[in-house]
């Protein structure tokens, strides 16, 4: 039987995470997400996930991380700031969500988590763990709440009092037993700025997002036709959307110190004509280590063509 990790070891892990560039680290006990699982099932039944079928296909694993790692006892959740100030944006360019300005966060955060796990293994060499950064069947926002990283805002993103919502999340599921951190309190209060500002009314109620109406969904996940009504509300966003975060008063807009998130040249916008004339080789060269590569050249061109059609 494994002995619960000491408080001092937990603090050592937090200190190492801080050294690696994470703004916050929290610990939660692995238990089935009984209450949240009902909400998630209803969300899926309503079709709010749109064409993202993998969310439904991995339901059983998402509501119980122990299905991913037998014997799992704790989950370590980390948050890292990616904010950079907005550059001037012209009306003649396609806008890119701030999270895609730098290197691919999946790679950056995972590399840091690998180092954090290696640090843990120096003290607990026989331990098992699974690292996740967004792409695996882990409900990271819910675990971030439980681990005290922050509260889930009315736009459904995690908010940290010190940084706001400009954060990436990552996690380590492990068979090491840690003392849990206290969940964060909700500080949204009566504010509804994110709900009122959503161009497509995707935030259908406080803490409820219909992802199939979100601009980020249409410009990243969706590959079919988009109604003219929606296109007219999308502005010049051609990859992602930052509206609900930009209006949030909890966002301190503190620049990140992580070099990998330094904005690339296209962070101030992608010129429509250049995207339409772009070759596959050019696309791969420009977005080789960037989230936009997931959309592919064909998808990016489709996003730009929608903007042209409404003009």
Summarize the structure in words.
With 311 residues, the chain is of the alpha+beta class. It folds into two domains: 7-83 and 103-174, no CATH class; 193-252 and 262-310, no CATH class. 34% of the residues lie in helices and 14% in strands. Helix 1 runs antiparallel to helix 5. The radius of gyration is 20 Å and the shape is globular. The chain starts with 6 loop residues before the first helix and ends with a helix. The model has no long low-confidence stretch (mean pLDDT 92).
How are the secondary structure elements laid out?
Layout: H1 7-20, E1 24-29, H2 34-45, H3 54-57, H4 59-62, E2 74-81, E3 93-96, H5 105-123, E4 129-132, H6 140-146, E5 151-152, E6 158-159, E7 167-174, H7 193-197, E8 203-205, E9 208-209, H8 215-221, H9 228-231, E10 237-239, H10 243-246, E11 270-271, H11 272-276, H12 280-286, H13 296-310
Parallel strand pairs: 3-10
Antiparallel strand pairs: 1-2, 2-7, 3-11, 4-7, 5-6, 8-9
Helix pairs in contact: 1-5
Low-confidence stretches: none
Categorize the overall geometry.
globular
How many distinct folded domains?
2
Taking the alpha carbons of the first and last residues, their distance comes to 66 Å
Helix segment tally: 13
The succession of helices and strands, N to C, reads HEHHHEEHEHEEEHEEHHEHEHHH
Main sheet: strands, sense, barrel = 4 strands, antiparallel
The total of beta strands comes to: 11
The radius of gyration computed from the alpha-carbon positions, rounded to a whole number of angstroms, is: 20 Å
In percent, how much strand structure appears in the residues?
5-15%
Helix content: 25-40%
**Structural class of the secondary elements?**
alpha+beta
Strands ordered across the widest β-sheet: 1-2-7-4
Mean pLDDT: 92
């Amino acid at each position: 039987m494994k002995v619960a990790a000491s408080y001092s070891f937990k603090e050592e892990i937090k200190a190492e995470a801080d050294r690696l560039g994470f703004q916050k680290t929290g610990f939660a006990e692995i238990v089935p997400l009984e209450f949240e699982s009902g909400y998630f099932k209803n969300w899926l039944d309503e079709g709010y996930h749109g064409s993202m079928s993998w969310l439904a296909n991995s339901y059983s694993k998402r509501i119980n991380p122990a299905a991913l790692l037998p014997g799992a006892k704790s989950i370590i959740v980390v948050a890292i700031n990616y904010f950079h100030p907005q550059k001037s944006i012209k009306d003649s360019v396609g806008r890119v969500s701030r999270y895609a300005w730098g290197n691919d966060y999946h790679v950056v955060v995972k590399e840091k988590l690998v180092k954090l796990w290696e640090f843990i293994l120096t003290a607990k060499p026989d331990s098992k763990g699974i690292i996740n950064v967004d792409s695996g069947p882990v409900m990271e926002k819910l675990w971030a709440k439980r681990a005290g990283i922050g509260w889930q805002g009315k736009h459904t993103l995690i908010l940290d009092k010190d940084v706001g919502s400009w954060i990436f999340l990552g996690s380590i599921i492990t068979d090491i037993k840690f003392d849990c951190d206290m969940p964060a309190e909700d500080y949204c209060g009566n504010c509804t700025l994110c709900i009122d500002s959503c161009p497509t009314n995707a935030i259908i109620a406080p803490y409820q997002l219909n992802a199939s109406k979100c601009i980020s969904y249409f410009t990243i996940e969706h590959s079919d036709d988009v109604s003219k009504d929606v296109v007219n509300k999308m502005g010049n966003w051609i990859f992602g959307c930052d509206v609900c975060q930009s209006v949030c008063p909890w966002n301190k807009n503190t620049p990140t110190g992580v070099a990998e998130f330094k904005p690339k040249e296209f962070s101030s916008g992608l010129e429509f004509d250049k995207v339409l004339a772009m070759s596959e080789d050019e696309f791969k060269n420009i977005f080789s280590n960037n989230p936009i590569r997931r959309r592919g050249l064909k998808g990016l061109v489709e996003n730009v063509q929608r903007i042209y059609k409404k003009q």
